[in-house]
Amino acid sequence: MRTSTALAPCNLPSYISFCISKEGNRACCHMSLQHSLKNELTLNDRGASPKWECPEPFALRISCGARENNRTRPTNTLWLKDFAYTGGIPGKVKRRSYIAPPLPTLRYFPLSVGPENCYNINRIPNGHYSVRVFFALVDPDLEPLFDISIEGTQFHSLKPGWSSVDEQSFAEALLFVTDNSASVCFHSTGHGDPSILSIEILQVDENAYHFGPQWGKGTILRTAKRLTCGNAQVAFDEDYNGSHWGGDRFWTGIKTFGQSSDKPRSVETSIKQASIPPNFYPAKLYQSAIVGTDDLPDLSYSIEVDPNKNYSIWLHFAEIDPSINGKGQRVFDILINGDVEFKNVDIINITGEKFAALVLNKTVAVNGRTLTITIRSVRGYAIINAIEVFEVIATEFQTSAEEVRALQSLKNALGLPLRFGWNGDPCVPQQHPWSGVDCQFDRSSGKWVIDGLGLDNQGLKGFIPTDISRLQHLQSINLSVNSIKGGIPSSIGTITGLVTLDLSYNLLNGSIPESLSQLTLLRRLNLNGNFLSGRVPAKLGGIPLHGASFNFSANAGLCGIPGLPTCGPHLSTGSKVGIAIGVFVSFLLILGCLIIWWKRRQNILRAQKLAAREAPYAKARTHFVRDVQMTRPQVHDHSRVAADNGPRLLS
């Protein structure tokens, strides 16, 4: 039996937990390092009703699709814009439940942006949290159906008609945050686009809803039902002036269980032992109740649940009936699906007085689709103030963080289309693994790992990154029939467990890495239909003799194995570099000679043109000189001239 008088410390970072006992009552709270004990906790003279003044818990509220922060009335609650948290498309709210936050925008995720979309929220202090997601409609005539997961564990699936039932307009879960972050994901089921109104992450006590040995960091509690009995009004903890450490729970009001003979009771008297750790229930919750009558002293309530699950049931009682004043006047048994779980419950006997809260908890396995809670009268009439039912969900083991990072790098390098999504965890929830990824659970590490990639014929146009080798558990890689460019990374040769490698019909170039020869388990290698060149590694050429199937065809530059052209003299890498440098230098010399010859030729042509232009002037000048010489007087050496010209005449 678990009661509100058995308290556990609520541990928070930066605060010291402490407990004190007085007259049999044990009370726990947190003392700030900057405050004294007397400012944190005060006990009255009887010690039964401590005054709790704990520090405010962490709270984060996101208005989905909002471009700026805003506040909502009447509580002036701050809602943050959802910039940089996720993808999707912002839109206007067309219809929402009246219990939902009065926010004007939402964010929806059409299938074209991927089947999985997540809000990745960082910088959350590690601790215990209530996470609540409200839904709304972007089209009032289309009600989407989708699944919701948190930290890789699916905890809720929307059912047809949810938009017409107030308490189905949100999903809520209690979980532990251990790495300062939370990932809330929405998984399309092919029935409309997931549309999200808001996300709340509210810190609760470290020991809130401690239901037994299964409780802890490996467990999520999904809220299946919360009822406040004897009161037809719905309410949040905030409406009841409850402590913020309660997580602002939503309570559906129910005035009767539908039995014509039960009746509501309500009082204004203050309730003791209510708003205390670890669950901090508001006192007002216990001021109303449903009570049996003479005609039907018993009470019974049934809810529909998912079969073959465990459910944690929390039942709330306070003796508020003025006709009951002492022990033994009201005694009852509590049955769950016909089995007696609590026998001879006497509220006053357990709490020690009237108007004091009593909480009983029991976790049961339910095989059918109905959970029935019966308060069977032993003496007097049955009574119940409130009911909480949680589905107990074991958290999924997550994928190795190293391999998740490697997949994200591969996503970016290959230019994966948006329709693939690839958001959140690739392997969990197991109902929604990433498309094109095969997973296997590694028992040695307690993590999921990636053992296969099947992305053939998907229109990929990027390149294969070298850090694909970080996916060390791969057994099969199929990237065939795409437009992947670049070379084959030599790092693939370090994936020692690889059995199948199909890169056929892409635009790959360069040589085949020698490191592929190290893949001793490789049995299928398809590199055909690319632009690869060079010698096929000799070891690869010999492996097919041992039962493997290798295909190197339709690569015009490959050589060296039967079925391919014979390679020329084998040159080392250094030789190839030397030849390349020699060819380049020769090219520069030839180019230099051509430039010199061209310049000399231009000079000759220029001189010839200049001579051609000056030729007529030179000829005229020559004639002029000759004429001048002929007309000039001959005054010297006449005798020589006469003798030379012929015989002398006698007179």
UniProtKB/TrEMBL annotation:
<protein>
    <submittedName>
        <fullName>Putative LRR receptor-like serine/threonine-protein kinase</fullName>
    </submittedName>
</protein>
<keyword id="KW-0418">Kinase</keyword>
<keyword id="KW-0808">Transferase</keyword>
<dbReference type="InterPro" id="IPR032675">
    <property type="entry name" value="LRR_dom_sf"/>
</dbReference>
<feature type="domain" description="Malectin-like">
    <location>
        <begin position="62"/>
        <end position="392"/>
    </location>
</feature>
<keyword id="KW-1133">Transmembrane helix</keyword>
<feature type="transmembrane region" description="Helical">
    <location>
        <begin position="577"/>
        <end position="598"/>
    </location>
</feature>
<dbReference type="InterPro" id="IPR001611">
    <property type="entry name" value="Leu-rich_rpt"/>
</dbReference>
<dbReference type="GO" id="GO:0016020">
    <property type="term" value="C:membrane"/>
</dbReference>
<keyword id="KW-0472">Membrane</keyword>
<dbReference type="Pfam" id="PF12819">
    <property type="entry name" value="Malectin_like"/>
</dbReference>
<dbReference type="Pfam" id="PF13855">
    <property type="entry name" value="LRR_8"/>
</dbReference>
<keyword id="KW-0675">Receptor</keyword>
<dbReference type="GO" id="GO:0016301">
    <property type="term" value="F:kinase activity"/>
</dbReference>
<dbReference type="InterPro" id="IPR024788">
    <property type="entry name" value="Malectin-like_Carb-bd_dom"/>
</dbReference>
<keyword id="KW-0812">Transmembrane</keyword>
